[in-house]
Design goal:
This protein is 24% helix and 24% strand. By secondary structure, the protein is an alpha/beta fold. Keywords: Metal-binding, Oxidoreductase, Zinc.
Length: 364
């Protein structure tokens, strides 16, 4: 079928809106008409030098929409279903069987290789040349996307479909990391480093969990203001002074039980670990390319550093819970969103990079 999509043809090129041909859904695949898709920091990997992501490519991995058709073997959803698209997974490896699809043994191949398992292109341009797709099992910077039976999550028909997409990655990563991976409980203390969409979702989740001290750290005062409105009990500008010392002071001198880094900046990660009390846990979700240097004396005192992918959640159960928390007014993720027409994707990207907007959502 003919679709329109935002195509990235080179790492340093703007997106171009192009007509493309999308294959019919094959075995295990689901055709979704996209109502809205979030722009996530991970989509910037398409701009990384060195050909890490093959071009030309259709990115986008926070899609939501309506199922239009399903391929052979798909029974979990039917045409007409409202769905959020999340990460893809194999369903058969040890981690998938242990309810950790984000740690699927085939995570990279299914989500970042942009090549279908059978090697056959799903998207071609007007000249019949392949365009890389299946980015996180969807490539949703488009009017339509092919998901899989493993990465589509049914949601209620009366939920705000155009803005639900970010629940499939950034929001579930932040909230899931706090509520599931770290297991923050009532009375706990937490410091969140970076208050973009993932960090602010973590702040909201910490308030839901009943944490009594929630410290938000960022360089943008506007985002720190929003963090306070969403549940942070303290905010710190990361450019001012010794972060770890300031956080230990806030927590009575011993440090916080949990810290959560979304930045992947080595100096910030070091501060996140140094802000922990003994037996504290630091969760890392940022994607970076530099090595981290950690003080071994800190690690010898019972502290833990934990890498987290997608919050360690099962999207099919966790995303509907986030929708219900939104209905109750306890997870107002929509306050982070600004919508743009898909044709304005380059402006949306620039606004996200400048910090003007927390979470752009593109509407085809």
């Amino acid at each position: 079928m003919r679709i329109e999509a935002a195509v990235l043809r080179a790492a340093d090129a703007p997106y171009t809106i192009e007509p493309l041909d999308l294959a019919d859904p094959g075995p295990g695949e689901v055709l979704v008409r996209i109502a809205g898709t979030g722009m996530c920091h991970t989509d910037l990997l398409g701009r990384a030098p060195g050909g890490r992501v093959a071009k030309p490519v259709v990115l986008g991995h926070e899609g939501a929409g309506v199922v239009e058709a399903v391929g052979p073997g798909v029974t979990a959803v039917a045409p007409g279903a409202h769905v959020v698209l999340s990460i893809d997974s194999c369903g058969g490896c040890a981690n998938c069987r242990a309810a950790l699809p984000g740690n699927c043994a085939r995570m990279a191949a299914l989500n970042m290789a942009s090549v279908p398992p059978d090697g056959m292109p799903r998207v071609t341009d007007g000249g019949g040349a392949p365009v890389h797709s299946r980015w996180f099992g969807q490539s949703s910077f488009a009017t339509h996307a092919l998901g899989t039976a493993r990465n589509v999550v049914p949601v209620a028909d009366d939920a705000p479909l155009e803005t639900l997409g970010p629940l499939g990655c950034g929001m579930q990563t932040g909230a899931g990391s706090v509520l599931v991976a770290l297991g923050v409980r009532a009375g706990d203390t937490l410091a969140v480093f970076g208050t973009g969409a993932v960090g602010l979702a973590a702040v909201m989740a910490a308030r839901i969990a009943g944490a009594t001290t929630i410290v938000a750290v960022d360089l943008h005062e506007s985002r720190l203001d929003l963090a306070r409105e969403l549940g942070a009990t303290h905010t710190l500008n990361g450019a001012e002074g010794d972060l770890a010392a300031r956080i230990r002071a806030i927590s009575g001198g011993e440090g916080v039980q949990y810290s959560f880094d979304t930045t992947a900046v080595p100096s910030v990660v070091s501060a996140a670990v140094a802000s922990l009390r003994t037996t504290g846990v630091c969760g890392l979700v940022g994607v970076g390319s530099e090595e981290y240097r950690l003080d071994p004396s800190l690690m010898l005192m019972g502290r833990t550093v934990k890498g987290i992918i997608e919050g360690d959640v099962v999207p099919q159960t966790f995303i509907p819970k986030l929708v219900e928390l939104w209905r109750q007014g306890r997870f107002p993720y929509d306050r982070l969103i600004r919508t743009y027409p898909l044709a304005d994707i380059n402006r949306a990207e620039a606004d996200a990079l400048s910090g003007e907007v927390v979470k752009p959502v593109l509407i085809p």
